[in-house]
Amino acid sequence: MAAALTSPRNVRDGEAAATPKRAVLCAAAALSVAAVLIHVWAAFQHFQQWWGYGAMFLATAAVQAIFAAGLLRRPGQQFLLSVVAGNLSIAGGYVVTRTVGMPFLGPHAWHPEKVGGLDLAATASEVALAVAVITLLVGRYRAAVGHVLLLFGVVGALSAGGWGISSSLGAEPPAARVGSWVQAPGGLLRVDRVAPESMAAMQMDKFAEQGMSMGDPMGMDMAPEGQRRFAVDVTLAAGEGGDLAYSADDFRLTGEGMEGAGPLRTTLTDGPVPAGGRISGTVVFQAPEDADGLELSLGVGGDPVALPLEPTSGENGGDGGGHEH
Question: Cβ of 143: how many Cβ atoms within 10 Å?
């Protein structure tokens, strides 16, 4: 009996069975290393948003590095189960940040991130890794994964349904586009054009005629590092029933990644627009380079106009800034 158990044929069969398992472990470790590299790269970007976001990325990378090392050292069933649970949790966190935003934490809490190429690659690596490792689980460990996946599915379905209902009930109408009239207290506002301030320099004569204060001979001072400036051509119209009273401070710029801000300067002079009249001018704003979803409104309760300016820094500045869970 003992000789049969240790015969060359049984040894060859054991080696043949171990070969596919070893290949799966190596592939899973490679996927984990890929996720580590993406998270480390994204951490530096997210430190610019808030130190806590960067720290979370580094912590995630460290955990996935431990997974990669462990997968190459003949891991036991409990370790494999932790790899599956950990990577599915990280992938689930990604879905949360792209639907409802990071819960509670940081300056961008509850603001959904945009989907980007690298973050999708990291999430795909995590899901593929988990699926690969599941094939190596046996007995009660594989059964435990089945129960966990069922629980994740139920919670995910309920969360998605609740989020969809709450979003539809509390949804605000989208901001108007450039060229459309919107309501403002006492009249109407229309954004006619949006351009980087450098383009507005060519209109220096018009600015000077209307008393606009210029910072240097070229008609502009320099924006601080990490900021950008742009000019917005606007038209204000008063209704037939009365004058439209306004001041430069009534213009408000808002967006993701910034606090509300007023204009730096304007060609418009404070004062009422007479009933039935119109006035046009240019308003210059400053916003962080990575600010997104910029909108302009006039006065409290005025309807917003979407400004077609994309973030200019970071991969996801427009695209999500990396893989944020």
Answer: 11
Which phi and psi angles does 293 have, rounded to 5°? 65, 40
d(CA 49, CA 52): 9
Burial of 141 (0-12, 13-18, 19+ CB in 10 A): middle
Task: List the 292-298 sheet strands across, edge first.
Answer: 251-256, 292-298, 305-306
Give pLDDT, residue 14: 46
Among 287, 307, 286, CA closest to 297: 307
Here the tokens at position 312 are 């200019």
Question: pTM (2 decimals)?
Answer: 0.49
Task: Quote the pLDDT of residue 163.
Answer: 64
- Element (H or E) spanning 235, and its range? strand 227-238
Please name the residue ranges forming H helices in 223-314: none
CATH number given to 181-311: 2.60.40
Locate the domains of the chain by residue range: 16-170, 181-311
